[in-house]
UniProtKB/TrEMBL annotation:
Heterodimers with GPN1 or GPN3. Binds to RNA polymerase II (RNAPII). One of its GO terms (molecular function) is GTPase activity. This is GPN-loop GTPase 2. InterPro entries: Gpn, Gpn2, P-loop_NTPase. GO terms for cellular component: cytoplasm. Belongs to the GPN-loop GTPase family. Small GTPase required for proper localization of RNA polymerase II and III (RNAPII and RNAPIII). May act at an RNAP assembly step prior to nuclear import. It comes from Seriola lalandi dorsalis. It comes from the Eukaryota. Keywords: GTP-binding, Hydrolase, Nucleotide-binding. Gene3D superfamilies: P-loop containing nucleotide triphosphate hydrolases.
C-alpha cells in the first residue's frame, strides 16, 4: 500500500465521531468545528458517511465523492444496511483515495463524521481497519461515542446503551470518550430515577436492576439483567461526559477529555483564545450550569439520593 513508502507522515490529531443514528454526530461535528476554529486550530472535517446529505458544516473531504449509498443500493439491489456495509468495505479497499485527499491538508486537526450503523463498531471490521490504517499514517485519534441522553430516563435502554458502549470500546480499540448528548433536552424525557452522576459515572447498577424488577415484563429477565450488569461493572471502562453542544463550558469539558485521551497539548495561542472566549461569555445566557444542575434535583422516588441510599446500607 502507498502508505508504506516514503518518509514517516507528520503527526496529526483528530476525533472519529461515532454513535447510533440520531445521537447528534453531525451537529457535534459542526459545533466542534466552530469551537476549535475560534480557538485557533485549523480544522478539517471528513464526512465518512456515504448516506450523509445536506451537510451543515464546511466539509473538506467528502467520502460521497468516492461512493454513495444511493448508488450502491440501486446498482447492487441492496437495502440500506447491507448497502452501508458495502460502502465501508469499498472505502477500506480504496484508502489511497482518502490518503491523497488528506495529504492536501497539512498541520490540521481532523474530525471524522462517521456513519451511524451500530454493527460497524461492534463486530464488523471495515471501520476498525480504516481507523487502524489512519493510526499507521501517524494519526492520534480519539473515538468520541455519542449517546442520546434520553436513554437515561429508561433503565432498560440505559443498560442496553452501556452494553453497546462497552462493545464498541473493545472492538474499535482507540482511546475512547463516551458522550451523553443533548443534555439541554434531558428534562423533556421525564424525571430521572437517580442523580446525573449515577449515569455519567456508571455507579452501582443493582439500583437499576431494582427499578427494572418493578416492571412485570422485565422481572422475569432479572437474572439476565444481573449478568449484563456484572459484565459492565467487571470491565469498569464505561463512563460518560455530559454535553450541551450550544454551551461553551460544556464543549470545553468534552474537548479536554478528548485531548487528554489522544495526547494533544494546548499551545499558548489556544490557551489565550480560550481565556478570551470565556471572558466574553461572562454574563451571557449559557445553559451549562442549569443543565448540569439537574443532578441536584434528580432524586430517587423514595426521596433519597443515591448517596443517601448507599449510606443506609
Amino acid at each position: 500500500m502507498s502508505s508504506q513508502t516514503g518518509a514517516t507522515p507528520p503527526l496529526r490529531f483528530g476525533q472519529v465521531v461515532i454513535g447510533p443514528p440520531g445521537s447528534g454526530k453531525t451537529t457535534y461535528c459542526q459545533g466542534m468545528q466552530e469551537f476549535l476554529t475560534h480557538l485557533g486550530r485549523k480544522v478539517v472535517v471528513v464526512n465518512m458517511d456515504p448516506a450523509n446529505e445536506g451537510l451543515p458544516y464546511s466539509c473538506d473531504i467528502n467520502i460521497s465523492e468516492l461512493v454513495t449509498l444511493d448508488d450502491v443500493m440501486e446498482g447492487l439491489k441492496l437495502g440500506p444496511n447491507g448497502g452501508l456495509l458495502y460502502c465501508m468495505e469499498y472505502v477500506e479497499a480504496n484508502l489511497d483515495w482518502l490518503q491523497n485527499k488528506m495529504k492536501q491538508h497539512s498541520d490540521c486537526y481532523f474530525l471524522f463524521d462517521c456513519p451511524g450503523q451500530v454493527e460497524l463498531y461492534t463486530h464488523q471490521n471495515s471501520v476498525k481497519n480504516i481507523f487502524s490504517q489512519l493510526a499507521k499514517w501517524n494519526f492520534r485519534l480519539t473515538a468520541v461515542h455519542l449517546v442520546d441522553s434520553h436513554y437515561c430516563a429508561d433503565p432498560a435502554k440505559f443498560i442496553s446503551v452501556l452494553c453497546t458502549s462497552l462493545s464498541t470500546m473493545l472492538h474499535v480499540e482507540l482511546p475512547h470518550v463516551n458522550i451523553l448528548s443533548k443534555m439541554d433536552l434531558i428534562e423533556q424525557y421525564g424525571k430521572l430515577a437517580f442523580n446525573l452522576d449515577f449515569y455519567t459515572e456508571v455507579m452501582d447498577l443493582t439500583y437499576l436492576l431494582d427499578h427494572l424488577a418493578a416492571d412485570p415484563f422485565f422481572k422475569k429477565f432479572r437474572h439476565l439483567n444481573e449478568k449484563l450488569a456484572e459484565v459492565i461493572q467487571d470491565y469498569g471502562l464505561v463512563s460518560f461526559v455530559p454535553l450541551n453542544v450550544q454551551d461553551k463550558e460544556s464543549m470545553i469539558q468534552v474537548l479536554r477529555a478528548v485531548d487528554k485521551a489522544n495526547g494533544y497539548c494546548f499551545g499558548d495561542l489556544e490557551e489565550r483564545n480560550l481565556q478570551a472566549m470565556m471572558s466574553a461569555a461572562v454574563g451571557a445566557d449559557f445553559q451549562f450550569d442549569s443543565t448540569l444542575g439537574v443532578e441536584e434535583r434528580y432524586v430517587e422516588t423514595s426521596g433519597k439520593t443515591v448517596e443517601e441510599e448507599m449510606m443506609d446500607l
